[in-house]
Design goal:
Helix 1 (30-37) packs across helix 2 and helix 2 packs across helix 3 (96-110). Strand 1 and strand 2 form a beta hairpin. By secondary structure, the chain is of the alpha/beta class. 34% of the residues lie in helices and 24% in strands. The longest helix has 20 residues, at 64-83.
Length: 147
């Protein structure tokens, strides 16, 4: 169903400064590849969501396939982080997962108020572009290197 994207929230070891890690898998299935190529931009966060009037990203646009993949995973990821009592999180992803991780990091920080300690992306495309607040994604909000 949908994009077939996958997320793996887990508690981190005590050695790490953050409490949880969320990893997003890269493209593996035909539905994942469809999400990769469903490339027209759409408003994000979605206007028909609980974040439709969000002031933290007015006029932002995101790649449709990546945004749809994140929206499919958003509820389960938020629920898992709540169940794990996470107050800090690291986010990572490869390929499709890197794009989804970018959206997740932005959303977890802005909409949920979690402290996103680290974001690691590998071989990922850009997840968003567009008007007004969207240019802040990597500059002000995420501040992470692409690997």
């Amino acid at each position: 169903k949908g994009s077939g994207a996958a997320a793996f929230p887990a508690p981190s070891s005590r050695r790490w400064r953050w409490r949880c890690v969320v990893s997003f898998r890269g493209s593996l299935t035909l539905n994942n590849w469809y999400a990769d190529f469903y490339a027209f931009q759409r408003p994000w966060p979605p206007a028909d969501s609980d974040r439709g009037n969000a002031t933290w990203c007015q006029g932002c646009l995101a790649h449709s396939g990546f945004a749809a993949a994140y929206e499919e995973l958003r509820g389960p990821v938020h629920a898992a982080l709540l169940d794990l009592s996470c107050d800090r999180v690291a986010v990572t992803g490869h390929s499709l997962g890197a794009a989804v991780a970018t959206l997740a990091a932005f959303d977890l920080r802005a909409a949920r108020g979690l402290r996103v300690e680290r974001v690691w992306t590998a071989e990922g495309p850009g997840a968003g572009a567009g008007t007004s607040g969207a240019s802040r994604w990597h500059e002000e909000v995420l501040e992470f290197p692409r690997i």
